[in-house]
Design a protein that fits this description.
There is one protein chain. The chain has 62 residues and is mostly helical. Helices cover 63% and strands 0% of the residues. It has 3 helices and no strands.
Length: 62
Amino acid sequence: MTALERAFHLARSGRFATLAEMVNALRRDRYDIQQVQGPALRRQLTALIRAARAAGETPEQG
């Protein structure tokens, strides 16, 4: 799996609140983060992270 593929997988996982957290996870897994550069790609990954987090949230029950 390439760093770019892994980045999309992690972004969709719902495990991260920010792009920086996800990039740090890539680094820990020893991926070359040079593939995760550029404003358009970063916006796309950020949008996936936010969508995954929103989908995983459950409304508070009152």
